[in-house]
Amino acid sequence: MTSPNVKKSWAKLVIVISMIKEFGQDDPRRVIHSFKVGLALVLIYILHHFRPTFYGFGDNIIWAVLTVVIVLELSVGATLGKGFNRMLATGLAGGLGVASNKIATLCGDKGKVVMTSIFVFVIAERVTFMRFSPQLKARYDYGMIIFILTFCLISLSDETGNELLEIAQERLLTIIIGSCIAIMVCIFICPVWIGEDLHRKIAGNIEKLADFLEGFGDEYFNNSENTEAENDKQFLHRYKRVLSSKSMEESMAVLARWEPRHGQFRFRHPWKQYLKIGNLARLCAYKIEALSVYLNNPKTPYEFRSIIQELCTKISLESGKALKESSLMIKKMYKSSSPNSHVSNAKSAVESLKSLLRTNPWEGADNHFEIIPAATVASLLIDIVICVEKICEGVDELASLANFVPYELLHRGIVQPISDSDGSVHVVTVAE
Amino acid sequence: MTSPNVKKSWAKLVIVISMIKEFGQDDPRRVIHSFKVGLALVLIYILHHFRPTFYGFGDNIIWAVLTVVIVLELSVGATLGKGFNRMLATGLAGGLGVASNKIATLCGDKGKVVMTSIFVFVIAERVTFMRFSPQLKARYDYGMIIFILTFCLISLSDETGNELLEIAQERLLTIIIGSCIAIMVCIFICPVWIGEDLHRKIAGNIEKLADFLEGFGDEYFNNSENTEAENDKQFLHRYKRVLSSKSMEESMAVLARWEPRHGQFRFRHPWKQYLKIGNLARLCAYKIEALSVYLNNPKTPYEFRSIIQELCTKISLESGKALKESSLMIKKMYKSSSPNSHVSNAKSAVESLKSLLRTNPWEGADNHFEIIPAATVASLLIDIVICVEKICEGVDELASLANFVPYELLHRGIVQPISDSDGSVHVVTVAE
């Protein structure tokens, strides 16, 4: 017989385990990454055990372990950035440290203490200050910490002359070995490219806006009471995730710049253009946020709302379609003029709406207060079309900058589109 | 005579130096922080030089240096968080490492290799996986890296038994010394409290929204051509910085929770309430972003715009005043009902505006299209008042949660308001 306490704990454990399982299923790449870290460390251990002379410098194995644990990140971009930073900073700071140690040694015993203190202070102070610069921080923050660290370690060392030089060389070599193991494990075992993540994220953000716009018309002009459960209206809330995605997009773009050519992405893929499109999408999301209030606010009576129903629904639907096509253009990496034709449709609907409004369609309304909500919705939709047009222009620009393939060529079967379901690249070769 | 090249380089150098200077003047705390890092390192060097036996374990000085360089951050919260993480993780992982090493040793020579590989793999894999959990990542990410690191170093060590235990203890002690030096330098020399930064940032964000709202009425209803230079209208653009401040506020709140009592801030200051207010302020900023479009769009002719001028200007002005008073309440940390009275004024103006609109004030307009911009502005302003009311409620809640002092007591001179100009706390004791 088990006591109720044991049963309780058991139930709790089961919940925690199922939570962890779900969490891994959310993004299986996390599970794979965890395995990769374990594997890289075991690799170092085995190498060290069977060939203690492999590295040739005994204790320094800790630097290889340190390097792997810290350098190996989920994405290739982050791993390459950190590895590069670590190797370059260790090399530079090692050289400078050996040089400053030599100079300090020339100044006699007391002089050495003073000189070393001055060197350590000046370097640590200057580099720490440089870390605040936003441009340097984005790409080289980790390198600057490692620079201070290595310089201090070399300067503070009790060894001098050739011995010191040897230590510095050994340390650099272990760090290069550690970084290379981390980079190789990251690239060759199920790589996660952060550039692709950014690519998919921007396409996904545009799609979220499109979902709202495609559904808005029906939702706002629907006269019947809402019978659907809130669950079925998820599409009206997805755009909210676009509102606060700025800082994430920016850090992804910084990391993506470290990545080499892979799949459809060149080394100098126009990542900045993604940020530009992301910002335009956010401006559109702010407008949508203002518009969404009118789904719940008291609405203009249906008889007056219905006057603008057809045109407003058309504007909203065509804007949504334009965005969905643009999102697809990014996802599948092809050039197409179809978003522009939807934008033209939306713009001509805007002109028709303006003409309609010039004929005083609400003449019979009881008072102006009643028609204000409908008027605001019309006005916001007209603003949104301008935003949508800019997003489509941004995507067109991206298509030229990144040499996307024209849609017609895509269907002759010579390109390799990127799958949007998971992180891996499928090579699709469609025969005509 | 100097060659033109030398002159050119000299000019460039001067520009770079003046840029660095300006950059330091932007936030003098950066300069102070850089000095603190240099100082802490020199302190360790001097201790190590004059008392090589001070730490009692020779080479391990590198762990103290490593700790100081990595743990000493700009703000007290970040330094305490990292120091705490580092000490706890080293202690736990050290103990676990020694235990697993003992178990592995029991399994014979070959068994040891297999067991150690399994231990390293399982621990590294599990902890890396846990790092993806958002709750753990926010507060303990650094600790989890250090945990993997220390566990691997102890497990991979060639030493066994008592020697290993000694190494682990020494390492832990050096790390505690390093963390304590970093924490003391951070707290006792010109401390930067990130909680205060968050406090000021939230107050500043509300003020930025207030600036826009206070200026909007005049700007929109002004009939004359814009003669002022764009520079003078900075107040109309400041709110834009609120739009994308979410992730920064969140990370500040996480760090602020590490900080001990200081000045007016208790240990368990309601930091979460700041995030709530921040989110409400952002919702208001989205609406303002939608409203700001109408400053530049073609406007309703002045004769019809002027009909709602008085009430709309009042709504916007009173909303702005309510926000400004709320911002001041946060800044000076006092309770006051004055924001609520401004909110009431704004709400009664909204009611008057609604009544006005019910009398069909735009009857004589040529067509409905002309009056749509003015109608939209009125409608958005009505929405904004709801947002403003929620912000003021949030600030009231903060005032109760954080035990702000009633305004009347403040002026009897018994509290210490926080200065908003720089990072230091001024103790103001006003005699009656």
From TrEMBL, chains A, B:
Q: Name one GO biological process term.
A: monoatomic ion transmembrane transport
Compartments where found: Membrane
Q: Does the keyword Magnesium apply?
A: no
Decide whether keyword ATP-binding is in the record. no
One Pfam family for this entry, by name?
ALMT
According to Swiss-Prot or TrEMBL, what is its membrane topology? Multi-pass membrane protein
Q: Which family does it belong to?
A: Belongs to the aromatic acid exporter (TC 2.A.85) family.
Q: What PANTHER family does its record include?
A: ALUMINUM-ACTIVATED MALATE TRANSPORTER 10
Q: What is this protein called?
A: Aluminum-activated malate transporter 8
Native species: Cicer arietinum
